[in-house]
Amino acid sequence: MSEKAYSVMELDEYTGGIIFAKDKRTARRKGANAWADGEQDCVEVRRLPSLDKYHLTGVPAKELVWSGWHFECHGCGMRIEEDNLIDQGLPVDGVVGFENGAIYCCHVCRMEHLSDKAARDAFGKAFLEMLRDVVRKRFPNIEHAFGEHKAHVCVHMGSPLSIIQASVGFSFPGMKIGPAHIEYHHCGQHGKTLIGPVRPEFWCCNGDREAFEAFTRHIAQDGGK
Fold first, then answer.
1. For residues 185 and 60, what is the distance between their CA atoms, to the nearest angstrom?
2. By the 8 A CB rule, do 179 and 149 touch?
3. Contact call for residues 172 and 136 (beta carbons, < 8 A)
4. Pair 80, 118: CB distance under 8 Å
5. 126 backbone φψ class: left, alpha, beta (φ>0; ψ -120 to 50)
6. Are the C-beta atoms of 44 and 8 separated by less than 8 Å?
7. Measuring CA to CA, which residue among 166, 171, 169 is closest to residue 142?
8. Residue 32 to residue 42: CA distance in whole angstroms
9. Cα 18 off chain centre by
10. The whole model's pTM is what?
11. What is the residue-averaged pLDDT of the chain?
12. What is the pLDDT of residue 141?
């Protein structure tokens, strides 16, 4: 038997969602665990038979907007609700996405957001590779050292794009505790972005400091060979 659709809402802040369950009691328990810290007396449960057909696919957000629900657009951030969409000249049927996923006010907003994300991801990936090139230049023949060590980058969505923070980890001879890192930070006090170039810096765990310093001295003595 297919599971049935229930609206479960937390009574204090009135947040919640659609729960698919075999009966109302199960829906209440699941919803309470999700939105009310397990307190079943703190949720309201309503049967929504018109949504039963979505138990395998998830509920399209536009169906809920038609029923008075609201969401925040994953792209532009606007409040997605019927009246607001009408004011913006956007049809409710143009809302894109499902209740438990990324929801957009329209297809154009979705495509712009995905395009921006692709550009941001490509920019960040290229910056991390630049940091790896800095490590390669400073420590020749170290390509194998990147291995599975973590790399991280945070891209600021401005015009043009800019890097706020980035880090690439790499191993080195004598390492016992953890990888060394080349790190880039482009933030001033209270999160303000700095003006001008920022120079990446090398870091390692305190317990590996002697080994890392010995490694760097060895590279210097060999003239980078």
1. 41
2. yes
3. no
4. no
5. alpha
6. yes
7. 171
8. 7
9. 23
10. 0.72
11. 90
12. 76
Entry field: residues in the chain: 225
From the list 65, 31, 69, 63, the residue with the least C-alpha distance to 50 is 63
Angstrom distance (rounded) from CA 42 to CA 39: 6
- Across 3-29, b (16+ Cβ under 10 Å) vs e yields ebbbbbbbeeeeebbbbbbeeeeebbb
Burial class (CB in 10 A: 0-12, 13-18, 19+), 80: buried
Nearest CA among 54, 85, 81 for reference residue 68:
81
3-state SS assignment for residue 4: strand
Residue 121's identity, in one-letter code, is: D
15 vs 18: CA distance, rounded Å: 11
- Is residue 221 over pLDDT 70? no
Tokens matching residue 110: 């979705």
Beta-bridge partner residues of 170? 180
For residues 199 and 186, give the distance between their C-alpha atoms in angstroms, rounded to a whole number. 9
User: Residue 20 in contact with residue 4, Cβ under 8 Å?
Assistant: yes
**198-207 tens-digit pLDDT:** 789 999 999 9
Distance (Å, whole) CA 197 – CA 43: 54
Radius of gyration of the chain (CA): 26
Question: In terms of DSSP H, where are the helices of the chain?
Answer: 24-35, 61-66, 82-87, 107-138, 209-221
- Angle made by CA atoms 192, 196, 197, in degrees to the nearest 5: 110
Using omega within 30 degrees of 0 as the cis cutoff, is the peptide bond preceding 91 cis? no
Q: Which helix (H) or strand (E) holds 155?
A: strand 151-156
